[in-house]
Amino acid sequence: MDVRLGLTDPKDDAFPLRWGIIGAGQISRQWVPAVRACKGATVSAVAARSKERAEDFAAQHEIESAYGSYAEMLASPDVDIVYVGTIHTLHKEHALLAIEAGKHVLCEKPLGGNAEEAKQMYEAAARQGVMLQHGLWTRFFPAVEHARWALEQGMIGDVVMVQADFDPVYTIQAAVLAFGIEVRPIITTFPKATVLEYPEDRSAVLSFITYLSEFPERTEIVGTKGRITLEQPAHCPTGITLRVPEKVPSRYLNANTPAPAHRFEYPIPETVSIPMAYPNQSGFLYQAEAVHRCLAAGLLECPQFGKQESLYFMDLLEVVLGR
Is residue 115 included in any domain, yes or no? Predict the structure, then answer.
């Protein structure tokens, strides 16, 4: 999206940035190989809650410097930007440490414990003049960017319904992607689902699945002229299907003939190899490349998921989770 809007140069994924990692858990383990596939990225340091843990992580991933103190790593002149990969209850604390040290920050989702914490984090980044990027990696996948472009072009008309299943973070962002941030919906929550009701009888029905089940994990964005499907796994999709029939609803006005389906595939780059990865985890690369391009252009947020959309999302998430 940053390239499509003319904000960045596509070649600037080669813009040099030295990354420091806060947290030596599973998500950081999967982030490191992905960010290294970005042309301009160097992973120069890792800090964990103990020196031994940081050294083990550094040895496994061939990282030059390991620290048992976050502050010590953040004082290093060899770190330009920090990836916060700790548990979400510590995101605010660790991101603020990095921001106050004058480092750019990419913080794993969700950005903070609630909307107020996220607001405070953005305010701190603004004072320091550094990037604070909410790490909602879904938004950087080419299939999701294609969906956003199709929505902007009006290809499916006005959005009337979103149906998504997975967890609150990923399904709420799908509703925000489709309906935008201009209107706050009425939120009705259930133990394993949430309904967001928008004006003019529009809604999002979000299901929070049990992982030990054969859940579909697709996102459907239904419009007055057509439908967008982000294919499984919709939180990190490599496929998108567009259905734009001549008449809507096509089955009722066209002798029960399904709408024509146009499928587009965006395979994960083979340049990334992550042992025992979660689904499509190599797609972290898309987010890393966007961060490099945006910082090269002097931007302190990526348009795929900027500050205003992030804060709106955090507000909805807070209500849904009852925080």
Answer: yes
